[in-house]
Amino acid sequence: MNTFFYGVLPYIALTIFIGGTIIRYTFFERGWTTKSSEFLAKKSLKWANPIFHLGLLMAFGGHVIGILVPKFVTEAAGTDEATYHMISLAGGLPAAVLFLGGFLWLMKRRFFGSARMKANTSSMDKLLYLVLLLTILSGTAGTLSNITAGFDYRESISPWFRSVLMLSPDVSLMKDVPAIFQFHMFMWMMTAILFPFTRLVHCLSLPFEYLMRSDIVYRRK
Ligand code: HEM
């Protein structure tokens, strides 16, 4: 079981994520879109959207530092475990509040707003939102459950993830990881598998094209 979840499934997920995205971009570029709903309900996007994306960027930065930077590097830079934990909570908790709060706000707009919004939400959108909700909730629950620093993910999850990237997965590192974090791992893999088939692909365009392209003009009538 451990071997499948931490030695096989990550590669299935990453292969579909990278391969599927390349195939979609190469052969189905015309469908490469975030399917903007701004023209359906503009006002409700004003705060929920930036809050969600700010939380996302903060959480992303936290993941890069916590997962990709080895513990000995932060220690060599003079940050001991207790200080690291305080810094990570100071960034991680506001990130989780903005990320989850913004997401729930966007979902309220989508599912409890106008009928036009509901009509423009596909089955694939619904599946994606469920998977994203569970990923964000499990990450936030992991952070909250670990406020007292009983579990050190930089001794288990982080080196395991780096071993996956180095193509030599050390699944034994994940043996005693608490269930909530194991669930979080499963959910990010599900997110990666869904990625190429959903509107999430827009996040790859944003840094390269979005900021430079001309505005799309929506007329009221
Ligand atoms: C779709 C991708 C992912 C999403 C949406 C996501 C979401 C989240 C959120 C919202 C939090 C809580 C906020 C925070 O502490 O900043 C969190 C925490 C966490 N995530 Fe993720 N995550 C993803 C991928 C990953 C991956 C790939 C890993 C590792 C392999 C990971 C490991 C962790 C850990 C260890 C924590 C706890 C951090 C702490 O307590 O300081 N996550 N995640």
Automatic annotation (TrEMBL):
Pfam families: Nitrate_red_gam (PF02665). GO terms for molecular function: electron transfer activity; heme binding; metal ion binding; nitrate reductase activity. Its EC number is 1.7.99.4. The chain crosses the membrane at residues 6-27, 47-70, 82-106, 127-151, 185-211. GO terms for biological process: anaerobic electron transport chain; nitrate assimilation. It is a multi-pass membrane protein. Keywords: Cell membrane, Electron transport, Heme, Iron, Membrane, Metal-binding, Nitrate assimilation, Oxidoreductase, Transmembrane, Transmembrane helix, Transport. It is an enzyme of class 1 (oxidoreductase). Residues 2-221 form the NarG-like domain. It is found in: Cell membrane. Heme b binds at H53, H63, H184, H202. One of its GO terms (cellular component) is nitrate reductase complex. This is Respiratory nitrate reductase, gamma subunit. It comes from Mitsuokella multacida DSM 20544. The gene is narI.
